[in-house]
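Request: Not sure, any thoughts?
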Amino acid sequence: MSAITIKDLRRRAIASTLFEPTTLLAAIERLGFVQCDPIRAPARAQDLILRQRVTGYRAGDLERQYADLGIEEDYLYAYGIVSETTWRLLHPRMAKRLSKTEERVRALVCAQEKLHPRELEAHLGRKREINAWGSYSKATTRSLEELHYRGLLRVAGREKGIRLYQVAREQAEVIESRERLRRLTLLIARILAPVPERSLRATLRHLGYAAPTLQGRPQIVKRLLEAGDLSEGEVEGVKYVWPKDHSAEGETPAVVRFLAPFDPLVWDRHRFEQLWGWAYRFEAYTPPLKRKMGYYALPLLWGETIIGWVNVSKKEDKVKVEAGFVDSKPTSKAFRSAFADEIERMRLFLSKEEE
């Protein structure tokens, strides 16, 4: 087990995920997964994640370009956008037979280039069913979601936030179960690297939903460590792991970044607290009077330290940024300049494309 410090972990974490901006498709392929969230404050999580990694990215570019990118919406350890490579590792999810309703829905979707859920109502009516959250959903929507989950339908795009469906592409070759599990584990370890081993094991439990046919999840981290596919290090009694070919060279640039609440750099809250010494909380679902940081507080990265958070709002062409700091606000000219630069980047990101 290699010796490692908190400073090493910070630099490695930043370098592994905040790479040089590139094209939208290249960024998604490098990440492998981009978590989605419908809240827009000031933009959706997926847009806030991608703006840090895509050259000239504007809010909504993912949705506008989705159909041309060959990517998928699916579930890994959360719901989001996955590369085609990741999608092929997740499927097939199960082999049980389709119900008569599912067979009919699939046939109706196959007959069209893409289908809006409301188009099924003429064929199947507006019957409602209790969903997984205890509330009601349309039976047609439930059938579409089930077929999508099973990899038989794909999300072709969205219309005013509503998923449009089409028949999924066929798997040219089904990868053997153990190899799929190995690759998926290494993918998640790379996305969150360096990740506390306990956090990786907890995240892998979500594969029970994302890829239920895969066997051997409880032993996979141990096997990968023994095989040398994962490296490990310990700091302050916490064991961290990362893929063996994981590189984190170079100095951290002295820039300010407003990060998404679900950005890979801040996703694991246990790691966040150890690396930066304070507890960040996502408070969108916290009662207003109990919020300490704000409805949609974005972690504030300055160089290699997350020093606080910001709440961003936009009215017409003006971006308003309210900042909070764990300790005191930096007073250096370098910070003031870098902070102003990030506000301007945020303004351009939220502005209309023709600007």
User: Anything to note?
Assistant: The chain is about 35% helix and 20% strand.
